[in-house]
C-alpha cells in the first residue's frame, strides 16, 4: 500500500523519545511522503528542520487559530522567509476555531486573512483548521481566494459545507475520526463526495484510529484510515491508497515523478 500522510505533527514533544523509530515505522507501513504541519512560528521552523533532514518529509508553515494573537508583522515576515524554502509545500495550519476560542474571533479572522494573502504571495496552497466556524471560513475564503488551492484538514462539518468547499476547488482530508463509532454522518459524506478530492491524514499525535484509539497516533497507522475509507467506498484498499496518493501529489504539488506515476492511475476514478 502506498500512502501520503498529508497532515502530521512529528515535531511535537510527544515524539521526542522515539521520533526516528516512528518515521521508520511509517516507511515500513507504506507511507511514501509525510507533510509535517506547523502550528506556530517555532513549530514551523521545526517542521522545516525535519523536512530538511528526511527526503520524504515536507513542511507547511503557519500559525494555528489558537495562537492567532501571536501573528504580528515580524512573525508574518519570518513565515514568508520560511515559505520560500524548497521543502515547504503549503501555508498551514491556518483558520478559525470557535470551539476553543483561544484567541478572540476578530484576531483569528485577521490572522487567517493575512496568511491566506501569504499563500497567494508565495504561490502555495493552504491548509485550513475549522472548528464550528463554517460560515466565516467560507466568507473569508470567498473574499480572499488565491487560486493556489487548499485543503480542509480534519473535515468535520456537514454535507452542505463539504459541497461548498468542493465547489471552491478544495480537497477534504479525513483522519482517525472516520473509524470512530459515532462518525456515521462523516462516513455518509465520505461515501458521497468525489474520490479525487479525498486526502488521508493522521494529525498525529492526535485522533488515533481504531483499533489504537486512546494511544498516541503516528503516520504508520494511516493504513487503518485508508482501509476504513476503502470499505465505505467499496474499493480495494490498494486502489483507494493509489487514488488518494495521486490526490495528495496534486494538492501539494509533490515532486513531479511521483505525481506523474500516480496521477495516471488515480485521477479517473
Ligand atoms: Zn494539525
Polypeptide structure, described:
- The chain is of the alpha/beta class and 269 residues long.
- It has a single domain, classed as TIM Barrel, CATH 3.20.20.140.
- The chain has ten helices and eight strands.
- The protein has helices spanning 19-28, 41-53, 73-83, 105-122, 134-143, 159-167, 184-192, 222-233, 237-252, 256-266; strands spanning 3-8, 31-37, 57-61, 88-97, 126-131, 150-152, 171-174, 198-200.
- Strands 1-2-3-4-5-6-7-8 form an eight-stranded parallel beta sheet.
- Strand 5, helix 5 (134-143) and strand 6 (150-152) form a beta-alpha-beta unit.
- Helix 9 (237-252) crosses helix 10.
- The longest helix has 18 residues, at 105-122.
- It is globular and about 45 Å long.
- The two termini are 17 Å apart.
- The model has no long low-confidence stretch (mean pLDDT 94).
- The chain binds zinc ion (ZN).
- Residues 7, 9, 37, 93, 203 line the site of zinc ion.
Secondary-structure blueprint:
Blueprint: E1 3-8, H1 19-28, E2 31-37, H2 41-53, E3 57-61, H3 73-83, E4 88-97, H4 105-122, E5 126-131, H5 134-143, E6 150-152, H6 159-167, E7 171-174, H7 184-192, E8 198-200, H8 222-233, H9 237-252, H10 256-266
Parallel strand pairs: 1-2, 2-3, 3-4, 4-5, 5-6, 6-7, 7-8
Helix pairs in contact: 2-3, 8-9, 9-10
The structure holds zinc ion.
- SSE run: EHEHEHEHEHEHEHEHHH
The N- and C-terminal alpha carbons lie at a distance of 17 Å
Main sheet, how many strands, which sense, barrel?
Answer: 8 strands, parallel
Return the CATH architecture.
Alpha-Beta Barrel
If you compute it from the alpha carbons, what radius of gyration comes out, rounded to the nearest whole angstrom?
A: 17 Å
Question: How many structural domains in the coordinates?
Answer: 1
- Walk across the major sheet and give the strand order: 1-2-3-4-5-6-7-8
Mean pLDDT: 94
Poorly predicted parts:
none
The number of E-state strands comes to 8
By DSSP (H or I, 4+ residues per run), the number of helices equals 10
What's the name of the CATH homologous superfamily? Answer: Metal-dependent hydrolases
Morphology call: globular
* Fraction of residues in helix: 40-55%
CATH topology: TIM Barrel
| CATH class value | Alpha Beta
Kindly name the structural category: alpha/beta
**How big a fraction of the residues is strand?**
15-25%
Amino acid at each position: 500500500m502506498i500512502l501520503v500522510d498529508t497532515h502530521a505533527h512529528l515535531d511535537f514533544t510527544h515524539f521526542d523519545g522515539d521520533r526516528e523509530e516512528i518515521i521508520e515505522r511509517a516507511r515500513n507501513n507504506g507511507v511514501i511522503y509525510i507533510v509535517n504541519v506547523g502550528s506556530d512560528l517555532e513549530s514551523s521552523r521545526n517542521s522545516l528542520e525535519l523536512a530538511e533532514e528526511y527526503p520524504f518529509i515536507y513542511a507547511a508553515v503557519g500559525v494555528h487559530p489558537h495562537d492567532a494573537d501571536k501573528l504580528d508583522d515580524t512573525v508574518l515576515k519570518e513565515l514568508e522567509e520560511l515559505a520560500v524554502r524548497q521543502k515547504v509545500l503549503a501555508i498551514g495550519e491556518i483558520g478559525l476555531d470557535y470551539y476553543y476560542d483561544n484567541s478572540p474571533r476578530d484576531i483569528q479572522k485577521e490572522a487567517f486573512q493575512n496568511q491566506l494573502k501569504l499563500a497567494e504571495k508565495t504561490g502555495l496552497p493552504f491548509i485550513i483548521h475549522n472548528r464550528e466556524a463554517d460560515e466565516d471560513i467560507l466568507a473569508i475564503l470567498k473574499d480572499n481566494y488565491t487560486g493556489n488551492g487548499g485543503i480542509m484538514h480534519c473535515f468535520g462539518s456537514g454535507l452542505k459545507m463539504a459541497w461548498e468547499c468542493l465547489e471552491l476547488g478544495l480537497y477534504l482530508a479525513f483522519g482517525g475520526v472516520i473509524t470512530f463509532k459515532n462518525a456515521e454522518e462523516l462516513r455518509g459524506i465520505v461515501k458521497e463526495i468525489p474520490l479525487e478530492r479525498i486526502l488521508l491524514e493522521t494529525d498525529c499525535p492526535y485522533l488515533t484510529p481504531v483499533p489504537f484509539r486512546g494511544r498516541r497516533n503516528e503516520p504508520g497507522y494511516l493504513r487503518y484510515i485508508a482501509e476504513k475509507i476503502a470499505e465505505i467506498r467499496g474499493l480495494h484498499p490498494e486502489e483507494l491508497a493509489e487514488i488518494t496518493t495521486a490526490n495528495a501529489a496534486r494538492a501539494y504539488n509533490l515532486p513531479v515523478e511521483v505525481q506523474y506515476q500516480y496521477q495516471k492511475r488515480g485521477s479517473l476514478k
